[in-house]
TrEMBL record:
<dbReference type="Pfam" id="PF00072">
    <property type="entry name" value="Response_reg"/>
</dbReference>
<dbReference type="InterPro" id="IPR011006">
    <property type="entry name" value="CheY-like_superfamily"/>
</dbReference>
<keyword id="KW-0805">Transcription regulation</keyword>
<keyword id="KW-0238">DNA-binding</keyword>
<dbReference type="GO" id="GO:0000160">
    <property type="term" value="P:phosphorelay signal transduction system"/>
</dbReference>
<protein>
    <submittedName>
        <fullName>DNA-binding response regulator, NarL/FixJ family, contains REC and HTH domains</fullName>
    </submittedName>
</protein>
<feature type="domain" description="HTH luxR-type">
    <location>
        <begin position="144"/>
        <end position="215"/>
    </location>
</feature>
<dbReference type="InterPro" id="IPR001789">
    <property type="entry name" value="Sig_transdc_resp-reg_receiver"/>
</dbReference>
<dbReference type="InterPro" id="IPR039420">
    <property type="entry name" value="WalR-like"/>
</dbReference>
<dbReference type="InterPro" id="IPR000792">
    <property type="entry name" value="Tscrpt_reg_LuxR_C"/>
</dbReference>
<dbReference type="GO" id="GO:0003677">
    <property type="term" value="F:DNA binding"/>
</dbReference>
<dbReference type="Pfam" id="PF00196">
    <property type="entry name" value="GerE"/>
</dbReference>
<dbReference type="InterPro" id="IPR016032">
    <property type="entry name" value="Sig_transdc_resp-reg_C-effctor"/>
</dbReference>
<feature type="domain" description="Response regulatory">
    <location>
        <begin position="2"/>
        <end position="122"/>
    </location>
</feature>
<dbReference type="InterPro" id="IPR058245">
    <property type="entry name" value="NreC/VraR/RcsB-like_REC"/>
</dbReference>
<keyword id="KW-0804">Transcription</keyword>
<dbReference type="GO" id="GO:0006355">
    <property type="term" value="P:regulation of DNA-templated transcription"/>
</dbReference>
């Protein structure tokens, strides 16, 4: 796996590079600003870019803008975004743009090395990885959606794990149920959220967006 890291904090940038190299991963370049990041992506053609949300010069959304531009230039590039805080606007638009090969983690997750590596590999392999804390915090800030009230507690559990990027098999393992039971719950979720199958809409992504924006309460 070839990786480019974009992070303006030199200590975190080099520490992350050392961590990944110690795990046998190939960090082909690191960058401290968006322009250097885009140059590295163009030159190195990595499999994955790990990008900080806030970068110079204004430390607002330069990292996100650069990640979007990198994906425009290289559509197969997987992007794992790191943020010190939950950024609701980006977390929801992340999924709205399509969830394949995309991840959003809080920086504190890097310290939990095994979890971080699982998320990195999931994104590199074409999946989605949304930090559980991001999901939990977004729910407390969201607007109510009456359709979510139709869901049973177990269906909300399934949808919460979908929001973290887990596939059916991983959800079944987490909830200690069969794959068939998870599939049945997901079909019920689609029906209760009025998500009919179409060629234009990924119902799994649409259901997660309803969840993140709709104020469902997650079971403890």
């Amino acid at each position: 796996m070839r990786i480019v890291i974009a992070e303006d904090d030199a200590l975190l940038r080099e520490g992350l590079a050392l961590l990944l190299r110690a795990e046998g991963l190939d960090v082909v370049a690191t960058a401290g600003d968006p322009d250097a990041f885009l140059e590295a992506v163009d030159a190195q053609r990595p499999d994955v870019a790990i990008v900080d949300v806030r970068m110079p010069p204004t430390h607002t959304d330069e990292g996100i803008v650069a990640a979007v531009e990198a994906r425009r230039r290289h559509p197969d590039l997987a992007v794992l975004v790191l943020s010190a805080y939950v950024e609701q606007a980006f977390a929801t638009s992340l999924l709205a743009r399509g969830s394949a090969r995309l991840g959003y983690l809080l920086k504190e997750r890097v310290g939990r090395v095994e979890e971080f590596l699982v998320a990195l590999h999931r994104v590199a392999e074409g999946g989605t990885a949304i930090d559980p804390e991001v999901v939990a915090q977004l729910l407390t800030r969201s607007r109510p959606d009456e359709r979510l009230r139709r869901l049973t507690p177990r269906e909300r559990d399934v949808l919460a794990l979908m929001a973290e990027g887990l596939g059916n098999a991983a959800i079944a393992e987490r909830l200690v149920v069969s794959d068939g039971a998870v599939h049945k719950h997901i079909r019920s979720i689609f029906a209760k959220l009025d998500l009919a199958p179409t060629d234009r809409t990924d119902r799994r992504v649409a259901a997660v967006l309803h969840y993140l924006e709709g104020g469902a309460t997650r079971r403890s």
